[in-house]
Amino acid sequence: MVEVFEIDEDRFVVLGRKGIPLASIFKDTLFHCSMVNTIRIGDVRPQSIRCKVDETGELHISLSNFGLTATTNPPPMPPSGNTPIQHGTFQSLSAIRGNQYVPIDDYIARECQSTLYPFAKKGALPLEPVRFSSESLRVDRRHLPASRRHQRGRTYIQKGAILHNRFQVETHAGAFNGERCLYAIDLQENQQVTLKAFLPEDPRIHAHIEFFQECGGMQGIPQFIDHFSTLGSEFIAHSHKGVRLRSILNSRLFHISMENTIRLGYRLFRILHSVHLKGFLHRDIRPLTITCDVDQNEELGVNLSYFGHAARIDTPPANNPVILGPYQSLHVSRGGAYSRIDDYISIIIVMLTCQGVNPFDFNTNSHLNHIQKKENFHADPYSFLTPETAWLGDLYLQLVEMRADRFSHLQIMAALRRAVPGIDPQTVITYHNDPANGYLLID
């Protein structure tokens, strides 16, 4: 299966779909490329780049998204016509301000801590290979500048490596915002675990440990297993099971049934209520931090899987990158202190996503920034909702009113039970599961 992208009448690119996500190796890879003549890509970021190791051990890097590709001299778009990617993390300040997009804007990638080099040569897409070891899946650092050969003392961990004389690495799950995630087998207990690696002194280490001391092993919360240091990183190990909700939504074309949306939200509210009773806030509820798994009774369970931003209730607001995301409340995005209400609002936004309603998505009202989008939704949520999802607007406004009065978990649960007549949120989530082929689908 391939992807075909047309650049103009005479040139097109065919890219193979098979590859690995760039995110886990993005900071270790140097792109030796040069710009295609008269073309600017307009969307250089980890999600638009693919990597594949061939039979000779070479890593081939190719671009996979040309929706914003254009000639290098188009006029700048007016503010009302800005493309959504201009608001992204990997865009230059000039592009975000609405100026003409030029080749140098393709080179700027703030998160990778280095300059993206221009693309190989005219017509060279996929790009010329960078030497890569297929055995260890590790970049040959002789091809990196001397300043980057020993970047911050972190080591790429091979599949099969045993850490702390206990955890055998199975696969790399990804990397984000200075954190690496790996799946491994606990050789002592013969169970699958998640390993999260941070640089020493990262405050998220303490956040995980403090949270697990109080909440680990509760319904919907993983069991804390170990904390250790090795290979220039500190690791948190906790139990792992299930499939991320984001993967399930991707497989379902971003939509699940109304019945299962309500059942999912009900379970998330119950989990968070238990966490709140222990004195903690999660502060990062989104499809990527929610997992679903089939339990011993063949029922689909819902769990949380990430706690790097968890904090005690009434913790003062802090500079936190998650507040810029679509799943945070307007109050938090404006810099307000996180509360139980904000955790619950995140669940409402997750349920909207399950219904294919995405008022804060980059592709929705792309001329607005994320705060403006949330202000518009806050002013009139029903204008963004379908008749079938209007009850989520009711629930949102009920939570907003509680901010000035008194928060009540019981009132929210009662409202959810009567949201759609005939749907009992306590009934089982219906699903299709095929472990042999590695997928789980919510109906």
List keywords for this structure.
443 residues, alpha+beta, Phosphorylase Kinase, domain 1, Transferase(Phosphotransferase), domain 1, 3 domains, six-stranded antiparallel sheet, five-stranded antiparallel sheet, 23% helix, globular, disordered N terminus, ATP binding
Task: Kindly give the count of domains.
Answer: 3
Structural class: alpha+beta
What's the overall geometry? globular
- Poorly predicted tracts of residues: 1-38, 78-86, 109-153
What percentage of the residues does DSSP assign to strands (E)?
15-25%
Kindly describe this structure.
- The protein is α+β, with helices and mostly antiparallel strands and 443 residues long.
- The chain folds into 3 domains: 2-148, no CATH class; 162-239, Phosphorylase Kinase, domain 1, CATH 3.30.200; 243-442, Transferase(Phosphotransferase), domain 1.
- The chain has helices spanning 93-96, 103-107, 203-215, 245-251, 258-277, 330-333, 340-354, 370-379, 390-404, 409-417; strands at 2-6, 12-16, 20-21, 39-40, 49-53, 58-63, 70-71, 130-133, 138-139, 162-163, 167-176, 179-186, 191-198, 224-230, 233-239, 243-244, 280-281, 290-294, 300-304, 311-312, 431-434, 439-442.
- The strands form 7 sheets. The chain has a 6-stranded antiparallel beta sheet, with helices on one face.
- Strand 21 and strand 22 (439-442) form a beta hairpin.
- Helix 7 runs antiparallel to helix 9 (390-404).
- It starts with a strand and ends with a strand.
- Mean pLDDT is 75; it is low at 1-38, 78-86 and 109-153.
- InterPro entries: CK1_Ser-Thr_kinase, Kinase-like_dom_sf, Prot_kinase_dom.
